Automatic annotation (TrEMBL):
The keyword Zinc does not apply. This is Cysteine-rich repeat secretory protein. GO terms for cellular component: extracellular region. It is found in: Secreted. It comes from Thalictrum thalictroides. Keywords: Glycoprotein, Repeat, Secreted, Signal. The keyword Signal applies. Residues 1-23 form the signal peptide. Residues 26-129, 135-235 form the Gnk2-homologous domain. Belongs to the cysteine-rich repeat secretory protein family.
Length: 238
């Protein structure tokens, strides 16, 4: 399967130990090192610009969009963008436009790249990845503070996220958010996945809790097809 992950997960998990993130700044990005670069003004460059224009229009009304532009092998580009389920149309549009501008700056001439923000995700490639769970592009974020009762807290986090995974996978938007006492959780999948694929993606991400966020007051596993987040403070709108 084609992958645009050029940095091993174990490096990401130790490098991105962020206590807080400014919503307007990207969380992280990955540029492909596995494909031939394109040149400015080439058919691929023109198709990529068309793709970005399409996504900037298609995504904000529903929070999701995907498109393929071009018909010739090597020049065709496939892409999708997803906004967080509780983000307004206006904030979604702002995030997508910021992601488009930023990915062009940080991954110039790359035929495949992905960028994550708090409010959205943007991904494109010269290989069709639609309907396939992205198991390569992934990183962790967690709160540096620990809870007192680690074992009990970990069980509560897993229970909440597992419940939300089941709900999200059966929803039209493949998104769910909720709370359990003081614990808040959010899960989401890209909508090119089927219900069963979404469930698998989220459940697999949840199994990484011990590696990602053992006893941490907040944490995330963020991937190219799905993500989860939990905190002990409000961070989403119901």
């Amino acid at each position: 399967m084609y992958s645009i992950n050029s940095i091993p997960l174990y490096i990401l998990s130790f490098t991105f130990l962020l206590h807080s993130v400014i919503g307007a700044d990207p969380l992280y990005h990955i540029c492909s090192s596995n494909s031939v670069n394109y040149t400015s003004g080439s058919p691929f460059d023109n198709n990529l610009n068309t793709l970005f224009n399409q996504l900037s229009v298609k995504v904000p009304p529903t929070g999701y969009g995907l498109s393929s532009v071009g018909s010739k092998v090597g020049d065709t580009v496939h892409g999708l963008a997803l906004c967080r389920g509780d983000v307004s149309n206006a904030d979604c549009k702002t995030c997508i436009n910021s992601a488009i501008k930023e990915i062009e700056n940080v991954c110039p001439s790359n035929k495949a790249a992905i960028i994550w923000y708090d409010d959205c995700l943007l991904k494109y490639s010269d290989v069709n990845f639609f309907g396939t769970i992205d198991t390569q592009n992934k990183f962790y974020l967690y709160n540096t503070q620990n809870v007192n009762d680690t074992a009990s807290f970990n069980l509560s986090v897993k229970e909440l996220l597992s419940d939300l995974s089941a709900i999200a996978s059966q929803s039209q938007r493949l998104y769910a958010a909720g709370e359990m006492s003081l614990l808040r959780g959010l899960v989401q999948c890209t909508r090119d996945l089927s219900s069963s694929q979404c469930k698998k993606c989220l459940d697999d991400a949840i199994t990484e809790l011990p590696s990602c966020c053992d006893g941490k007051r907040g944490g995330r596993v963020v991937g190219g097809s799905c993500n989860f987040r939990y905190e002990l403070y409000p961070f989403f709108s119901l």
